[in-house]
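WARN retry 2 of 3 for item q-0093 after timeout on previous attempt; input resubmitted unchanged.
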Amino acid sequence: MKYVFYVLCILILTLGISFTIQSDLGTSPFDALLVGLSVNVGLTVGSWEVITALILICFNSFLKRKRPEFLGLLTAFITGIGIDMWLFLLHNLITPELWYSKIVCFEIGLVVIGIGTATYLHTNFAPIPVDRLTLIIQELTSTTIFFSRTFIYLLFLIMALIFNGPIGVGTLLTVCLGGANT
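OK item q-0093 returned
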């Protein structure tokens, strides 16, 4: 039952991510990078989720000088499938054009992401590699989670800018408040 709950939580999280992408107000820097890579390099957003997770798992392993936590790939794989599925299903259903409908779509996305993240964390199973990186940076720099998450978000923001990802007000809010929810 724990594993079913885990998958459902990830699917809720990815529904929220898809809402923020569809809002066209900007996504988290990480998701902006994934969308930018998808649009400018090819493959789907979900495929880039898995590829980026693999890179992060290897990087995390290097930083910690421990074996790679490949179980995080399971989370990335389910997350990637979820994002691609929701984007496919929502593509024609939710296309906000007016500013207030974009705000509503973005806010729904944030709430759903919050619910998905909070419930996913309670399963305590297969951490998302970027979350693991946050904890590693916190430990290595002896700083707060807020600092390490903001630092990571700034790095992803720079990469998203390079790949012309969907950066907007929502992205900037996420960077400024990124560590507040962790």
